[in-house]
Design goal:
Elements lengths: L2 E9 L2 E8 L2 E9 L10 E10 L4 E5 L6 E4 L12 H19 L15 H4 L2 H4 L5 E8 L8 E3 L4 E2 L3 E4 L5 E4 L6 H11 L9 E4 L8 H23 L5 E4 L4 H8 L7 E5 L1 H14 L7 E3 L7 H4 L3 H7 L3 E3 L5 E6 L4 E6 L9 H23 L3 E6 L6 H15 L6 E3 L7 E6 L6 H5 E6 L2 E6 L1 H13 L9 E6 L1 H10 L1 H11 L2 E6 L9 E8 L4 E7 L7 H49 L1
Parallel strand pairs: 1-14, 11-12, 14-15, 18-19, 24-25
Antiparallel strand pairs: 1-2, 2-3, 4-5, 4-7, 4-13, 5-6, 7-8, 9-10, 10-12, 16-17, 17-18, 19-21, 20-21, 22-23, 24-26, 26-27
């Protein structure tokens, strides 16, 4: 077992979590301190700002950037302001229904009386009023122009169980636990957890092979959170946050199978201490797997050789081993993935090349979808294949690979145009939504890395920067918004780096450099070349020596192919000439015989 969880939280702007198996990244998550911070799971004391009868929903002010959307079906009847006349009529109607149901039909006594949900009896404008106070939880984060989706049915997740304090579900076992004996054992253990009639308790898949003591501790933990929520709600004014559940470190400890991982290595004192405290409460005995990273020479991601791999996740172009590549482009409606054979020419014919490249691309696409957390509609443009059996092979490979994805996926068949549509369940915001934003570079509007994500990358580089010789002054050329952010929030850090390197660092605005890229160079001119020396250049290398070498190699291959093709044609022509010459004397003999 060589699985590890690597956490980089050296700066408050960005926390990166990489789930690795050996040297390969299996899953990657990012949490930023910007407005795009994940809020799913947070509980708020909120106020109804507007009731919309046409949508049968309410817009809620919970203190976020935009108003939250609360459908009528997600409002508990505890918040319904039912008129007194309706309450009296309801009691009469209920008594009448019970008498009528049991009057002459003795067989029906064992059956439940069918009840209509309260939200179907009324309309939202009748029972929910403006400025009404509600306790709500975020179900879906804000996305684009859409506000967060809310519910009044609170759910508090632990490692082994989920408590629903205001939804009377009873005790339910996860459907993924199939073994009958295991389900029976968990049912017996969970019945010892004291819940009221108004509550519901869901036993999670992680509770498989869990003992009674750990499950009981987990239940006490989630029940304690609910009690603290109730206490805080009484002493708070709306809108305000009551309970925060969006901490990325707490989430992966709670939701991941920690037993599968060899160790959890964390860079960042505060995050390490918080994780240690959380694991002692939630997973006693497992905190020994936690290790604090204290290397001062390399960053944690560079130490585990992950930095370049993480940078490649942000690229739209992903290379394949065979020489082909895929291009990933996201729009508001869908994500388009194009497959190209590139320099892949090892197979005997076009059909075999297309099949091999498509199969290789399927594995890479599934990996990229998982790592980038791409959700919604995804359209894949495969290389055209002539045989139906090859199309079936590609479809089967895609289904088999997506089977291990934690998100639910639906896959269509390959069309005659070589297109395949699939939809992936949205678990959380994608990597692009978390770390990218719209900006203007050289007068052109484009998508760039967010300020917080870019700043954290620059600060990480400066923290571990080493100079080969003494330099009086260094110029850090970077985008305008990054310049302003560092000057406002990280002046003390820059001074510490100046003391460490024994040099002066000047921040220089350069709007031609797109975030997160930057240039670090000397302010003194080089006497030989009469220009400043570049210490570190983070810009993408366009037309580098390696690229030129590859271009030359590909051109050589093309020329060699043309030469071999011409030689084949010449050989065939010579053979034909020889055959014709041999035929000529035979024709003369045949004429003499005649």
């Amino acid at each position: 077992m060589d699985k590890r969880i690597i956490v980089d939280s050296s700066f408050k702007e960005e926390t990166r979590v990489a789930f690795i198996n050996g040297t390969e990244i299996e899953h990657f998550e990012v949490d930023t301190s910007s407005n795009k911070k994940q809020l799913k799971g947070n509980v708020y004391l909120a106020k109804v700002s507007r009731v919309e009868p046409s949508l049968q929903a309410a817009f809620i002010n919970y203190g976020g950037n935009k108003q939250g959307f609360l459908p009528f079906s997600e409002i508990s009847n505890d918040y319904f302001k039912i008129p007194e006349s309706d309450k009296k009529n309801k009691i009469k109607d209920d008594n009448f229904i019970v008498k009528d149901f049991y009057r002459d039909n003795k067989e029906n006594r064992a059956k439940k009386i069918p009840r209509i949900p309260d939200f179907k009896k009324y309309k939202i404008q009748e029972v929910v009023k403006k400025n009404q106070i509600m306790l709500v939880q975020i179900v879906k984060d804000e996305r684009g122009n859409k506000g967060a989706a809310l519910t009044t049915y609170i759910s508090i997740a632990g490692k082994y169980c989920v408590l629903m304090p205001n939804k009377s579900l009873g005790i339910k076992i996860s459907k993924k636990i199939i073994d009958f004996k295991e389900r029976k054992k968990l049912t017996q253990i969970s019945q010892k957890c004291k819940i009221t009639k108004e509550m519901g308790l869901i036993i999670r898949t992680a509770s498989r092979d869990c003992d009674e003591n750990n499950l009981k501790k987990d239940f006490d933990y989630v029940l304690g959170i609910w009690n603290s929520i109730k206490e805080k709600t009484i002493n708070s004014l709306a809108p305000t946050i009551i309970n925060e559940d969006s901490n990325i470190v707490n989430k992966f400890i709670r939701d991941s199978f920690i037993e599968e991982y060899k160790e959890i290595v964390i860079e960042g004192d505060e995050t390490y201490e918080r994780a240690k405290k959380y694991m002692k409460t939630l997973l006693p005995g497992q905190e020994r797997k936690l290790k604090e990273y204290k290397n001062t020479k390399l960053s944690i991601m560079e130490y585990y050789d992950l930095e370049k791999k993480i940078d490649s996740i942000y690229d739209t172009k992903v290379k394949l081993r065979s020489g082909g590549y895929i291009v990933i482009n996201s729009t508001e409606a869908l994500t388009a993935i194009d497959i190209n054979s590139g320099q892949s020419t090892k197979e005997r014919n076009v059909e075999e090349t297309a099949l091999k490249t498509n199969i290789e691309a399927v594995d890479e696409i599934c990996k990229q979808i998982r790592i980038r957390n791409i959700a919604g509609l995804i359209v894949v443009d495969f290389i055209d294949m002539g045989y139906v059996r090859n199309k079936i092979i590609v479809e089967r490979r895609l289904k088999e690979t997506l089977r291990y994805d934690r998100a639910k996926c639906q896959i269509s068949r390959l069309s005659k145009f070589g297109l395949l549509e699939l939809s992936r369940q949205r678990i959380g915001p994608s990597l692009e939504e978390t770390t990218m934003e719209e900006g203007v570079i050289s007068g052109i509007r484009c998508t760039i890395r967010s300020t917080t994500s870019s700043v954290s990358k620059i600060l990480r580089k400066l923290k571990y920067l080493k100079l080969e010789k003494k330099i009086k002054e260094l110029g850090l050329h970077l985008y305008e918004t990054l310049h302003e952010y560092i000057v406002t929030n990280h002046q003390s850090f820059i001074k510490d780096i100046e003391k460490k390197l024994k040099t002066k660092i000047l921040l220089i605005k350069d709007n031609n450099i797109a975030p997160p890229f930057f240039i670090l160079k000397t302010l003194e001119l080089n006497k030989k070349e009469n220009k400043s020396t570049i210490i570190y250049d983070d810009l993408p290398k366009l037309g580098s020596q390696e690229d030129n070498k590859e271009m030359k190699k590909s051109k050589k291959k093309e020329i060699e192919k043309e030469i071999t093709a011409k030689n084949k044609v010449k050989k065939e022509e010579k053979i034909k000439e020889k055959i014709e010459k041999k035929k000529e004397p035979l024709d003369e003999v045949s004429s003499v015989v005649k």
